[in-house]
Amino acid sequence: MTWKIQAITGEMTGQEIDINRDMLIGRSQEADIVLQSGEISRRHAAFLLKDKALWVQDLGSSNGTFVNDLRIDHETLLKENDIVQFASLKFSVLEPAAIRKMAESDVLETDTKENLASETHSDLVSANPPIEQPIEAIATAEVKSPVEDKQAAAQQMNEQGMPSLSERSNDVSVSANGMPQNISVPKPAPIPEGVDVHATPEPKPVVIPETKTMVEQEKEQRKNASVGLMTIIVLIILAVIAWLFFK
User: Fold this and answer.
1) What is the pLDDT of residues 6-19, one digit of tens each?
2) Dihedrals phi, psi of 71, to nearest 5 degrees
3) What's the superkingdom here (predicted)?
4) pLDDT tens digit string along 55-75?
5) Are strands 173-174 and 180-181 parallel, antiparallel or unpaired?
6) pTM greater than 0.85
7) Contacts 24+ apart (CB under 8 A), 178-187
8) Cβ atoms of 25 and 86 closer than 8 Å
9) Beta strands per DSSP E along the chain
């Protein structure tokens, strides 16, 4: 399988070049594809064939190699209708017919599989329509009778702390809803004499301990230092007098 490039600019416009192996592009006569232009380096770029795929690699050229107007600095994979450019010379990439046919057959096979799967699903749905359940088939357990509702309400009242009928006093009358009636409310305890419930207690003054300021503390420290110094001087004088006396 042979890839091709077709010149679309310069003096070679319209010419096709076969790429059937690794090929060197440059201004040098030793290159596989010789491009006679001053802007082309002697060893400008190279085409590489790897697993039937075409790659292009720049070889440190001065004016660069481009793929679809983007400058490349490493190996780049090429595909059908890509524009590869060496300096200002542009070429269109032509994919081999065999590879193009394989790609088209893969796409056709994928579409065929998807269509078959869709048709199979439609056939299964049409052959087995969903069964609608009649209204009469609804479980009777889902329909609650009024008696069950009353029993559930009574049970909920018992769980919330409502005493049962057997625990209630016989003297207490009960309404139709089961609530006790004519219940006397106990009176509050009497207030002692001499106590004014509306009086507000007077706030007690808070005693804040006096703290010495920094100036006072510094004065006290100087005073203590002066007293200590005077004491030392007096002791020295007494020692000198005693020494002179006993001498």
Assistant:
1) 999 988 899 999 99
2) -70, 135
3) Bacteria
4) 999 999 999 999 999 999 999
5) antiparallel
6) no
7) 178/154
8) yes
9) 3-7, 16-19, 23-26, 33-34, 45-50, 53-58, 65-67, 70-72, 76-77, 83-86, 89-94, 173-174, 180-181
